[in-house]
Amino acid sequence: MLAGLATCGFMMNIVSRASDLTQDFKTGYLTLSSPKSMFVSQVIGTAMGCVVSPCVFWLFYKAFDDLGLPNTEYHTPFATVYRSMAKLGVPRECLVLCYVFFGVAILVNIVKDSLHSKWGRFIPLSMAMAIPFFLGLYFAIEMCVGSLILFIWERVDAAKAEAFGTAVASCLICRDGTWSKPSSVLAVAAVNPPVCMKFLSSQTNSKVDNILQGST
């Protein structure tokens, strides 16, 4: 388990740096910045972090005896979360599902690129389909609201919509996104969702069905 958690932390840092660099490239494209300068800046910042971060951790480790322990001032809640995830593991056929979805994504992209633009535009992009899996279902609400705003904007002023539409969409989606405001209002009003979803094993599910049938 320790080896898996250490590898997880190592890979998360690598993927996080690559993701940040990709986002920086997108921002640089919008602001007409030099990709080379952004890459060099990222390398310098990462190199500094490799020195500064261990030093800061070592200072905290030497200064506080209870560093990282639960119910302390400097606890590590994510450590408990990741340890619990490592104990649970993944479903038995998880790797097979990964292979299947990877192959389907490649096949969809090949078909989309092979067809003429007249028909290829009706085939969805695999990358766009994958976004809600990472960001959550609320992303569909943001896309619907954003598309409506862009549709009205194009009717009112097509030139400005073409020039600033991407930047405005990035602002609405970045960080917590548009849905965070209605979600906060619903949380303050103590509104509970009308639907509850739970995933159970087949054995537990059959027991629940028997209990429900007996109660009726």
Automatic annotation (TrEMBL):
It holds the Pfam family OPT. The keyword Transmembrane applies. InterPro entries: OPT, YSL-like. Its main location: membrane. GO terms for cellular component: membrane. It is found in: Membrane. The chain crosses the membrane at residues 42-61, 94-111, 131-153. It comes from the Eukaryota. GO terms for molecular function: oligopeptide transmembrane transporter activity. Keywords: Membrane, Transmembrane, Transmembrane helix, Transport. It is a multi-pass membrane protein. The keyword Transport applies. Belongs to the YSL (TC 2.A.67.2) family. This is Gb|AAD49762.1. The gene is MFC19.12.
